[in-house]
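Researcher: Next entry in the queue.
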Amino acid sequence: SRVKKKYGDFPVFIHILKSVPRGILEIERFDMLTREEVEKVAKELKRIEIMKSEFTNIAAHELRTPLVPIIGFLERLLGNPKKFKLTKDVQKQLEICLRNTKRLDSLVDDIFSISKLESGEMKFNMAQLDLKKIISNVKADLYHSAEKKRLIIKLRLPSKLPSVNGDEQRIIQVLTNLVNNAIKFTEKGPITVYAHRKRDKVIVQVKDTGVGID
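Model: Structure for this entry, 214 residues:
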């Protein structure tokens, strides 16, 4: 627990710490910290937080470096199985490798994004976007994932949608995650993406028939 008391105009922080039991005894320790000592501790905690953020950034970059050629070569092999004389069993194993490598790449993206948000360095590239085109591209990107489970992705979009102001990559990331989750938790039935204008906004919805949030 932490108690702050004031003796005259001089604040004193009292920390009551309980140590790990030694035998049958427990040792209690009372520490009195002055204002200067508290500020020193705060600065040290801030320094550690910055170090943690820098380490996360470096780790994310280093993890991505070997993933790029791995994904590239796996896609090249699977893109022409006859040329590389791949058996069905080998193709299946390579597909598992590629799927998990791409998942790892996606996790690295998440780590990098979280690190930027925590450090206050996240920047958005705002521009006027064609949302209808973005939604169609996301459908095309996830077509094979849906096809493997014999699912269909349907689009219910008006003939015209107004342009929106946003960061294209972030919107793609969010929409991809929503549709991908729908594919993951749906065993049968369609996955439908809706979009419509509501006053000064465009509402985008992803609907599926699988288990999930009410």
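Model: The two ends are 40 Å apart (CA to CA).
Researcher: Noted, moving on.
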